[in-house]
Amino acid sequence: MSVRVRALGAADAQAYWDVRYATLSSDPFAFGTTAERFAALPLEQVAQRVTPSDTRVSFGAFLSGPDGQEALVGILTLVRLDSPGFAHRADVLGVAVLREARGQGAGDALMHAALDHARSWEGLTSLHLAVTDTQAAARRLYERHGFQVWGTQPDAIRRAGQVLQEHFMWRPV
């Protein structure tokens, strides 16, 4: 199976919602938000979030099934900070791949798309992201793409009686 990545738009809102909700449900310790909180968002708001702008783009990774139909299996959002003192930075947010699609290159393809797009933003010098200590595979993905940990926040997220750390990572563009 080959992975195809493209920028998402408003027409992809339902598919994005489905992937985001599924990954928030299956990996609750990977994200700062919860599936329940995300589920409360109106689809119109999700459509606005995935509509590209000058400072924001969401990418989708698609796999073709045996019937030739493509399905969205992974998502990643890249957000350029717009405050003048921070316009040299962008954040990588909401990276998620459906559990059943992992190990097929979707995460790598999403990271390549984000890096390529980041290079198109004039004056952008660095990318930043955070990963919880429970997400070793995600951290390895980011490290393969040149991200390095610059700091760790203890007691970053508390959920279901578990205390999680967040590792902050960055890489030059």
Could you characterize the architecture of this molecule?
The protein has 173 residues and is an alpha+beta fold. It has five helices and seven strands, in the order βαααβββαβαββ. A seven-stranded mixed beta sheet has the order 1-2-3-4-5-7-6, sandwiched between helices. Helix 1 crosses helix 3. The mean pLDDT is 96.
Topology:
Blueprint: E1 3-7, H1 13-26, H2 35-39, H3 43-50, E2 56-64, E3 70-80, E4 89-97, H4 106-120, E5 126-132, H5 136-144, E6 148-159, E7 162-172
Parallel strand pairs: 4-5
Antiparallel strand pairs: 1-2, 2-3, 3-4, 5-7, 6-7
Helix pairs in contact: 1-3
Helices and strands, in N-to-C order?
A: EHHHEEEHEHEE
What is the number of helices? Answer: 5
Give the biggest sheet: 7 strands, mixed
Write down the overall mean pLDDT: 96
Percent of residues in helices: 25-40%
Brief overview, please?
The chain is of the alpha+beta class and 173 residues long. It has five helices and seven strands.
Q: What key phrases describe this protein's structure?
A:
globular, 7 strands, 173 residues, 37% strand, alpha+beta
